[in-house]
Specification:
heterodimer; A: 212 residues; 74% helix; globular; disordered N terminus; disordered C terminus; B: 192 residues; 6 helices
Chain lengths: 212, 192
């Protein structure tokens, strides 16, 4: 299923339940807010985790995002999903955190080993996968913020182009343009990184990388 | 087929849409035709596909990550700590409003009583009977004379005649014998 197809699948039933949940949240029903948190915590956590690569930082961003959501719960509108708002807040919090302290790439190795289940038994393959995550995250981290957000939402979070545009409040064409430039930068970054080998390089190129 | 300079850049967007999202539009076929004889675009597209694959694989890993089970208890504690703070901000104003309301409730009947004399149980002879200050003085002097035993046999001419309006409930006047003050009974005055 493509991103666009997945994005367009928001049913009326879920919108209704969203509206009902929001009404209860706005009435200061803490149980409803727990349900609200359970419904939206994963996408927000993954966005934060994808950008920071740090589980602890992602947890804190998750907390901050939903604390803000609680404070601003009266600004949510019926019939409008709060997810774009939550994404925007979490992205801004990520940028604030990253600009305060450029996170080291090492946490992604350690935390991913513990938090992300890995079915592959071979340690060598796990190490390769872990290294790949680190390279990709470094590649994302060196992108400009506006490109980072597009890449995280579209590729890591699998939002559609339309949803990405909605979350970021930009035009569809701008999303495409940013994706284009972000991919070009990432491609150059990955090509320059000597660790980027294994399954991600053509057979001929892999030999060249090893030789160099 | 003759390709002009800048054709590679022109086809890149269409090629990217094709490999990334499988979009086939009018510009896709010319872009693919260009790809067949452009080694540079082929290499570039190949590395772009690898980057996309790497991104998607990273996305798969990130997509399996979940927050810790302690996330909600922590957030709940934080939210509950926000709630008393909110009440603490509201309490001074709420308390003031409550105090004003309480005072108003307690004071309102008294204030209403002075404005509507007929419905008030409070006796106020000055306002009800229209007795002037001069009449009150004369009354006080009369009482003083009685206590001192110097009750005047006759009122001085200069003093005004006291005319107290008589008001009795249901306009029933009691049977009462008027005593002429000029002829004292000889009995000691009774305490009023």
């Amino acid at each position: 299923m493509t991103n666009d197809a997945a994005g367009g699948a928001a049913s009326t039933a879920s919108q209704k339940s969203d509206a009902e949940l929001l009404r209860r949240v706005q009435a200061d029903d803490l149980d409803a807010f727990e349900e609200f948190f359970a419904r939206y915590r994963n996408p927000i956590y993954r966005t934060a985790y994808g950008l920071t690569g740090d589980r602890q930082a992602a947890e804190e961003i998750l907390q901050d995002t939903f604390a803000r959501a609680y404070r601003h719960r009266h600004t949510f509108h019926d019939g409008v999903s709060p997810l774009p708002w939550l994404h925007r807040v979490s992205l801004n919090l990520c940028y604030s955190r990253l600009s305060r302290r450029r996170l080291d790439a090492s946490p992604i190795d350690e935390t991913a080993e513990h938090t992300v289940p890995d079915d592959r038994p071979l340690p060598a393959e796990r190490a390769e996968q872990s290294e790949l995550r680190q390279i990709v995250r470094e590649g994302i981290a060196q992108l400009p913020e506006k490109h980072q957000s597009v890449v995280v939402l579209y590729y890591l979070h699998r939002l559609s182009l339309q949803e990405t545009a909605q979350v970021l409040g930009i035009q569809l064409g701008t999303v495409k343009s940013r994706l284009h430039y972000a991919l070009r930068s990432l491609r150059v970054h990955l090509e320059e990184d000597r660790r980027f080998g294994g399954a991600y390089l053509p057979a001929g190129d892999e030999a060249e990388v090893k030789a160099s | 087929m003759i390709e002009f300079r800048g054709a590679c850049a022109r086809h890149r967007a269409a090629l990217l849409d094709f490999v990334d999202r499988g979009e086939i539009v009018a510009s896709t076929a010319p872009a693919l035709a260009h790809l067949e004889h452009c080694g540079r675009c082929t290499d570039e597209l190949e590395s772009t596909v690898l980057a996309i694959t790497a991104l998607r694989r990273y996305g798969d890993d990130v997509g399996r990550a979940e927050p810790s089970p302690e996330a909600w208890p922590r957030l709940r504690a934080r939210i509950e700590s926000l709630r008393p703070a909110r009440w603490a901000i509201m309490s001074p104003s709420a308390g003031m409003v409550m105090s004003i309301a309480l005072v108003a409730v307690l004071v309102a009947p008294l204030r209403l009583g002075t404005s509507s004399a007929s419905s008030s149980p409070v006796y106020s002879p000055t306002t009800q009977l229209g007795v002037s200050l001069e009449e009150r003085r004369a009354e006080a002097a009369y009482l003083k004379n009685i206590r001192m035993g110097t009750f005047p046999t006759k009122q001085p001419a200069s003093r005004p005649v006291l005319t107290f309006p008589r008001k009795y409930p249901d306009n029933i006047e009691p049977d009462r014998k008027e005593v002429n003050p000029a002829e004292p009974s000889g009995k000691p005055p009774e305490a009023i």
